[in-house]
Amino acid sequence: MRSHPKDPVTGRPELRPPLTRDVDRILAVVAHPDDESFALGALLDRFTSCGIPLTLLCFTHGEASTLHGRAGDLAIVRARELRAAAAVLGVESVDLLDYPDGQLDRYPLDQLAGHVRQLIAEQHPSHLLVFDIGGVTGHPDHQRATDAALAAARTTGRTVLAWTLPREVADRLNDQFGTAFIGRTPDEIDAQFSVSRTRQHRAITAHRSQSLHNHVLSRRLALLRDREHLRVLHHREEGITAMSYAYTTRLTEPFSPAVVDRVRAALKEQGFGVLTEIDVQATLRAKLDVAMEEYLILGACNPPLAHRALGIDPEIGLLLPCNVVVRADGPDACLVQALDPQTMVQITGRPELKPVADNAAGRLRAALNKLSS
Question: Is pTM, for the whole model, over 0.85?
């Protein structure tokens, strides 16, 4: 009989060949505080216990929850609970966004995926960890968070692992509680792991506003016992391995001079002046007599940061200024995209440029966030 490698945490044999042998760093992408503990908790514990660095992106504060085990502003309470639970599970950092709970499907997928791409560019995870297709629980926010992670993975060449449930577990929960769990047959599940639930239970306890009298959660963990299951939704070999090099925000208004003025103002607030402006639409019409959508390239420069970068590498001028594109995205929307300053570090191989790139990246993201707020 073929022997399987042993689980590095429990010492017991794996039930299937491990998926973790080539994992260098993981970015978990979820919709709500407590998703990381109630759903992914045992897996996060498994990965961090193996010494794999892990960070977390959460799209909402979970303020629409109907479970209220604590008094106070639920958005504030749940944000605090999330950070406490993440610390228990060994998560390095938490990026908590402020999208409205229950409304992720109202936002453009590329906008949501942009947040994932941004963290991929900053942290360089080898794998993303998400909920399975369908969101496992049937919640549309879970599905949207997974869709955003998949969209980012396809353009950045990352493998996507998905937490899932065996069909028999999902069916029993649905029969008992009238829930809408989505389960998978054995042939659809790519890996099954032995897990410890000690730290997961501690993390669940940190979410006191949601974990008191949560009978569905208790029953699910009892049915799963010491097993968790994963599917591979996307292999890096199957996707485009192009480097992610842009920050993007989508504005639900048509391209106009007023939008361009707002972009200039947002850049100015962050210390960037616009040194150059190229009207690509007008240029192509004049030179080639071809038509295209409105497309403007602004050459943005922050003089102190440019001075620091040139002092480190005089050739960096070839990558300056930081280009910002404002372009039409159909008749009723436009995109604003900024070159990721981390590209300077990646192209030059000069790690001493990273502090400059980090500063510039933070300023450009703040400018784009101001536009979409």
Answer: no
